[in-house]
Amino acid sequence: MLERYAAGERDFSRQQLSGINLSGANLRGAKLAISDLSAADLSYADLRGSDLSGANLNRAKLSQANLQGANLKTANFEGAVLRGANLSQTNLSWATLKAANLFEATLAGAILFETKLSMAVLPDGTCLD
């Protein structure tokens, strides 16, 4: 996948990428809509302006990832670790962040319309019921 990205390909929609290690990868502007990234390691990845709408990111590791301006609409982040991630200017409408860890994440300007945050750890360390 990284070789294809380096060659200029950006559309990786509807891909089965469960458990993939993309830690530190540059995937800026990639289209990963409706892809299965469950249990993937995207820690420190550059996903600015990417499209992850409808993606399955259950139990994914996104610590310190840069998702600024990404489309995360309807994505499922259940049990994901987003500790210290940059989620500013993202669209998280109708996304599921149930039991996600958002400690020290940046959410400035994020759209959180109908976002499900039950049992999540918020950026300030508050745990929701």
TrEMBL record:
InterPro entries tied to this protein: 5peptide_repeat (IPR001646), Pentapeptide-BTB/POZ_domain (IPR051082)
SUPFAM superfamilies: Pentapeptide repeat-like
PANTHER family linked to this entry: BTB_POZ DOMAIN-CONTAINING PROTEIN KCTD9 (PTHR14136)
Name of the protein this chain belongs to: Pentapeptide repeat-containing protein
Protein's organism: Neosynechococcus sphagnicola sy1
